[in-house]
Each structure stands twice: as C-alpha cells, then as structure tokens.
Amino acid sequence: LAMDKAIAACIKLGSNCCLFISDIVSIALIVIGSVNTDKCPVEPMIPTFLIVTGTLSIAASIVSCCGKICDKENEIGIRVQPIPCQVVNVLMTIAKGIWFILGMMWTLRANPTYQPGMATYCDWFTYMVAYVTFIIIFIVLGLAWCFCECGTALMREYSLNKFSEYVLGLVAEPKSETEADSSA
Predict the structure, then answer these.
(1) Rounded to two decimals, what is the model's pTM?
(2) Minimal CA–CA distance to 27: which of 3, 51, 62, 63?
(3) What letter would DSSP give residue 115?
(4) Do you know which InterPro entries this protein is assigned to (predicted)?
C-alpha cells in the first residue's frame, strides 16, 4: 500500500512537471507565432500553426487538470474521469492530431529563403521553431510509445490483480458436489 502511494505520488509529480513545461512551451509558441504573423509570405499558415498549436496545448492542459479534479474512483479502485471530460479529451486529441498533420504539411512544403522581400521568404526563427516543434513532437511520441508499452505490461499485471480481487469478492466460488450433498 505504501509502495502504491509512492508510485502514485511520483506519477503525479512527473505529470505536473510535464504539464508545466508543456504550458511554457505553448506560451512561447503563441508569442512567436503572434509576433511573426506577417513574416512568412511563402506560407502564411506557419505562424498561425504555432499560435493554434500553443492554444490547443494550453486548452488540453486545462481540460486535463479539470478532469483530474473531478475524477472518481470506480468500484475496482481505478480513478476515472467523468464522461464529459473524457469526450473533450478525445476531441482535443483529434484536433491536435489533425492540426499537427496540417502544420507539418505547411512547414515541410514551404522551402523558404531567409532574405526579406523575396516571395519565398520566411523568418528563419519562426520556420525553425515550427520545424523543431515537429522533431520534438515525434521524439515525445516515440518515448510515449515506449513508456506505454512498458507501463501497459506493468498496469496489466496490477489491473489483473485488482480485477481478480474485485471479481473474487463479488462472485462466490461454486460449491463442489460433495459440499452441496453434505449441506442438504
């Protein structure tokens, strides 16, 4: 029980740190995109991509925090967010995924020059922030996949144990024929 609490506290701390760093990066994306909205004529959607990406990330953090405040423990001891929070999380994830694909398309097809006044100009810093954002997102997705694979194996073991305790607590084992005959 003490180990479960220590693991939960560690996960909560790590989750909060990730949310904080994500929010700082999101604010930076919004600022960079806002300051450079007119500095990328080769692809005007790149600054917009940065602004919307930052905004969606902050909105997702807020929804996640609200969901954590409202979550409840179900009958087998697993904390679950209310259905409306789950629906909003799914919709936010879909929106972020679609926006990520669109932003990657806009950024990678731009092929800008960094000389102001040219039709193919895009501010170097703005373009690099958008480009590096994709690299970071791919790295994070790769790491998340690796951690999910490991975490799934650990949670499967833990959840099966919890589920077994729950089922065994609710469903009595059937009596054998000898026990049934002796009680009659």
Answers:
(1) 0.73
(2) 51
(3) S
(4) TMEM272
